[in-house]
Design goal:
The chain is α/β, with parallel strands linked by helices. It has two domains: about 160 residues, 3-Layer(aba) Sandwich (Rossmann fold); about 70 residues. Helices cover about 35% and strands about 25% of the residues. It contains eight helices and ten strands. The chain has a six-stranded mixed β-sheet, with helices on both faces. Strands 2-1-4-5 form a four-stranded antiparallel β-sheet, covered by helices on one side. A hairpin with a 2-residue loop joins strand 4 and strand 5. The protein is globular. The N and C termini lie far apart (about 35 Å). The relative contact order is 0.18. GO terms for molecular function: ATP binding; ATP hydrolysis activity; ATPase-coupled transmembrane transporter activity. Pfam families: ABC_tran. Keywords: ATP-binding, Cell inner membrane, Cell membrane, Membrane, Nucleotide-binding, Translocase, Transport. One of its GO terms (cellular component) is membrane.
Length: about 240
């Protein structure tokens, strides 16, 4: 269980405070208007954004004293953060060992992760030889091999065409089920939530305004959510 309890950070003219619970193996979609605080929440969980107060625990472990490398978290951003001088294989393998010293089983793990995201024939290519969508898939493959129990996705598939985005979302869902990974996924596409999410968090003005099933997208009368979806009250 990931427990987010009144987790607070603030800026000179803005303050956010989040509370939520995510069950192990659960996929949670985090939606809301731009600037509402979605990426800030992911940064607080990953340890990249300072927390002023509140509590953050995962499977009973207090995460706040831990630096980003020590947290049981993998974060996949819109910016895939590839090493431009390394081929696809090494960009994936660095998720297993920063010095790229892999034993045979780990090398097979890298090859399988590349195959799962459709890059099995591109292991020797450099990032500059890949499309933007292929580069994002390298980032997903790296996340697959890391095997951390908490996966944070910050719009990583935004550059993919709709069919491939749905395919990658299905891969994330399969990973979560197979390895009991807890996934928190930021998306500006409500369809993503309906495709794979077990629950939905709607963030509005620096707080979680709604938490529930993805059917909230159709059933809720919350004015902030309806504005975000572009629906009038009577629609």
């Amino acid at each position: 269980m990931l427990i987010i309890d009144e987790l607070v950070t603030s800026y000179p003219d803005w303050r956010v405070s989040f509370s939520a619970r995510l069950a192990p193996g659960q996929i949670t979609a985090l939606i809301g208007p731009s600037g509402a605080g979605k990426s800030t929440l992911l940064g607080m969980i990953a340890g990249f954004v300072p927390v002023e107060s509140g509590a953050l625990t995962f499977c009973g472990e207090d995460l706040l004293p831990l630096g980003p490398p020590a947290r049981p978290v993998t974060t996949l951003f819109q910016d895939h953060n590839l090493f431009l001088h390394l081929p696809v294989f090494d960009n994936i393998a660095i998720g297993l060992h920063p010095g790229l010293r892999l034993h045979p089983a780990q090398r097979r793990q890298v090859t399988e992760a590349a195959r799962r995201v459709g890059l099995g024939e591109m292991l020797t290519r450099l990032p500059e030889q890949l499309s933007g969508g292929q580069q994002q898939r390298v980032g997903l493959a790296r996340a697959l091999v890391r095997g951390k129990p908490l996966l944070l996705l910050d719009e990583p598939f935004s550059a993919l065409d709709p069919a491939l985005r749905r395919e990658m979302l299905a891969e994330v869902a399969g990973l979560a089920r197979e390895q009991n990974i807890t996934v928190l996924m930021v998306s500006h596409n409500p369809e993503d939530a309906e495709l794979i999410a077990d629950q939905l968090l709607f963030v509005d003005e620096g707080r979680i305004a709604l938490q529930g099933l993805p059917s909230l997208l159709r059933d809720s009368d919350h004015p902030g959510l309806r504005r975000y979806l572009g629906l009038s009250r009577g629609a």
